Hints:
5 helices; 4-stranded mixed beta sheet; 3-stranded parallel beta sheet; alpha/beta; 2 domains
Amino acid sequence: MSEIVNRVAQSNLVTFDLEDLYPQGERFLFDIKDWLFEGLILREKEFRIQIEQKDWSQFKDAYVALTCSTDAIVPGWAYMLVTSRLCPYAKKVIVGDLEQLESSIYQPILEKLDVSIYKDKPVIIKGCSHKPVPQNAYLMAMAKIQPVAKSVMYGEACSAVPLFKRK
């Protein structure tokens, strides 16, 4: 009987896991619809009162996505005003949904990433994650790693999908 050999462990395959880059901090989707008259009309005076009465400290060290879930037309200054109150507490504030928030969190992390360890190596971008890694982060990782890697795959070593191979 021949010995079972783990060829994956013996290969120079490098796994890149976006979950390892996931920054800690709560994520919030902050909907301003409740601060609008009938959920549709922004009345400046009432809006400013709501902002002044809000305890913003609950967003300390958090990431916040501002949104309005109704079809209201919200002037840009309204989100800016909310952001001015969040800035002393939140790590990051955007207008959008939670996926857009995650993408905006990952972007600077991936831009600064040193990919020299992947030079001329086969790389597998791990696909499964337990944290909310956005699809855009995978695209950014591909764009960052492909220029240096020998090849790029997606998934797990046992069932990887080939994406790129340098000729």
